[in-house]
Amino acid sequence: MGDTFIRHIELLGYEKRFFPSQHYVYMFLVKWNDLSEKLIYRRFTEIYEFHKALKEMFPIESGDINAENRIIPHLPAPKWFDGQRSTQSRQGTLAEYCYTLVNLPHKISRCLHVVSFFEVRPDDMSPVTDSQIRKPEVFLLPKDAKKNASDITGPIVLQTYRAIADYEKSSKSEMALKAGDAVDVVEKSETGWWFCQLKNKRGWVPAAYLEPMDGPDESEEQEPNYEGKTLRKPYFLLQKCWVGLEELWHQSTISNAKSIHNKGRKQISQETYRRNSKKYMQNRRNMRGNLKNKDIISEKNEQEENKSKAQPAVPPRPSKDLIMNRCTESTRRKIM
Hints:
Blueprint: E1 6-17, E2 23-32, E3 37-42, H1 44-57, H2 84-89, H3 91-102, H4 106-109, H5 112-117, H6 122-125, E4 137-140, E5 159-163, E6 182-188, E7 193-198, E8 201-206, E9 210-212, H7 216-220, H8 251-261, H9 265-309, H10 320-326, H11 329-335
Antiparallel strand pairs: 1-2, 1-4, 2-3, 5-6, 5-9, 6-7, 7-8
């Protein structure tokens, strides 16, 4: 077999981590010539140091001698403080950089410096973390995003699933499960294997071993139906493909998996619709009641205000005798 080289590098997004301190790492899916696919994580400072070393190795292709001969792509230097905004905004540039890098002449794209930088490290499979600190936030780059920062998704709340049976891993890229384990799903592969994380462990597990936790998001999702299909691992596990489902789990597990994947989306949607409709009608009734109360209060206030503005009643004219008794002598003479 020939030398190892990279076929393609795809930027998936980035993670916001909180251990040992808050920082950001980019997620790359690296596809190799042996059809394997590896998920790696790199800080931008690491990528920039790699870039500077690559330029020193190939001064002509980097344009140091003559700028017109440059074929190695440009990469902006890190900022004094790389926050979330700068991490998000440079994703388009970084995705284009990786695409150009892989398509450079073989003496550059397949050199040991490039190959070794994108190889899987131990912390890619099991990142160092602290159970007392909150888990990383994942920001995925949509596949149809056209290098526009406004297309970048917000923080992705990873879906949590529960293991319905014990699972023993058969390779380093997989992850063992115990019945009842709650795992976060990072990636769902069409092969029937999902890339999950459990505390500080990460790896691929069969999708049929997982059921969604109780919650509106999970219940609304239509699960793929793997019944009757050969469960096939991703490319980097082809050497250990399993032909039948019977080698993975016993009959009770299969029945549990069927009960998961045979959920009626239409029925769930109707229930959700009815639930939302009840809330909507209740809100409408509350709004009408509030408006009615406001009208009554407003009408009372208006009546009271009108009363306060009304002119006082005119008292009756005093009798002639009362006037004569109380008036002055001058007034009495005029009347007489």
